[in-house]
Amino acid sequence: MRHVVVVLLAVLCVCDAVKFGQLCKGNPTNSRRTSDSWGQGHYGAGRGTRQHQGLDIVCSDGSTVYAPFDVTLNGNVKVYTDPNKTTINNGINLSGEGLCFKLFYVLPDRTSGTVRKGQRIGTMLPMQRVYPGITSHIHVQMCDKSDPARYFL
Ligand SMILES: *[C@@H]1O[C@H](CO)[C@@H](O)[C@H](O)[C@H]1NC(C)=O
Ligand SMILES: *[C@@H]1O[C@H](CO)[C@@H](O)[C@H](O)[C@H]1NC(C)=O
Q1: CA distance 137 to 119
Q2: pTM beyond 0.85, yes or no
Q3: Superfamily of domain 19-151
């Protein structure tokens, strides 16, 4: 019995150990968007009739975006259908460390291949033009729509 518990704990610790490295230049700790006039940045925050399905990490417009760990690029992602938001309507689907996730509001340098941790993957789009006064941010969304917070410090 004791062996089973030890093995289970070891497995859980491996899963929990996956943490995102720095995503955005100028934000080495992946600090999160808290609250601004447009809403809150945590998973589950209200978005009109919907709920926020990601976690928002602070990133200034035009900043370099980095691979948070060794990743495979799985193609580009469109965030909106609204033509008024074309300026920031881009993102990328990534996988690595056993996780599949998407980063919104990022213009990717490339959309296939692999990138090592800390290397650039793209540029933060000009979010202030679409949402004046918002805390500009990268939206991190897991492909399975679960809460990304456990993968951040
Ligand atoms: C992201 O890429 C993965 C791997 O190719 C794929 O299984 C998944 O469906 C993609 N998700 C979205 C939302 O594009
Ligand atoms: C786009 O912006 C125009 C001008 O502000 C507005 O009239 C229109 O309703 C907007 N479209 C959508 C889909 O929000």
Answers
A1: 19
A2: yes
A3: Glucose Permease (Domain IIA) (2.70.70.10)
